[in-house]
Amino acid sequence: MLEWIKKLVSQIGTIWGKWSIIQKLIFAGILTGAVAGIILLFTVSSSPSMVPLLGVPITDQTTNDRIILKLDEEAVNYRINADGRIYVSDDKTARRMRSLLIREDLIPTGTDPWAIFDVERWTLTDFERDVNLRRAITANLEQHIKALQDVDNAKVSLVMPERTLFSNDQNPTTVSVVITPRPGSDISESRVKIEGIVKLIQFAVEGLEQDNITILDYSGKILNDFENLGKLDDLMLTSRMLKQKRSLEVQYTNTILASLQNVFTSKRVNIVNIDIDMEIINKTIAT
Question: Which long-range contacts (CB under 8 A, 24 or more apart) does 154-163 make?
């Protein structure tokens, strides 16, 4: 074996000695390129694979900028290809960001829901197609809802009645979702976050009306009862107003005391109470 290696090295040395400088440079260049290609191949193959965020290129620059801003706000690692497709690190991140983009109305107009939820178009019999479609939508909805930071677990029930000849006799499609909020989450009292889940469900199920969506927590409390949530929002607004009023009263008291104590001693000056009347006006500004 050693003799064969020595013979091979000797032959290579003989051939190398017969080559001109140009031939040696060409050979060195080819060898360097081959080594660089092998190193690049191993680098690319060992780098973590990324998954598409929406599955379709984003051609509108304004929408693309808003999506990128949202990704930056969420500290998401992403990559934009030359064709405008956005890639993120893994499936879980992609599902979470899709849910947030739908909640914030950042999905480009005309985007195909099939591309969002990675649901295949089934080409089986009508019954098998409907069953598989329902299962696929249900599974993908659960994955996207559970990807939200405020949700620990989610169970989706989708009912798609058999199609009838007359639309008046058609029973509506309904969806019920039972979520388990993460400890410390305010999703049960946040109308914006619950509305985001409603938008996510409506985007996934074609023709689904908001009235036919029920979102509950593990205790059975209906979370998308927006009429009661509106009352709760008013209570939270009142609470914030009272806190702001008290903060201003303390601020004014300290300012007045500091000014007077520069002239008089602290023992001679005291403020019993300051009561501020605040007028809060709710305005709607059209943009």
Answer: 154/178, 154/179, 154/180, 155/179, 158/134, 158/205, 160/130, 160/133, 160/134
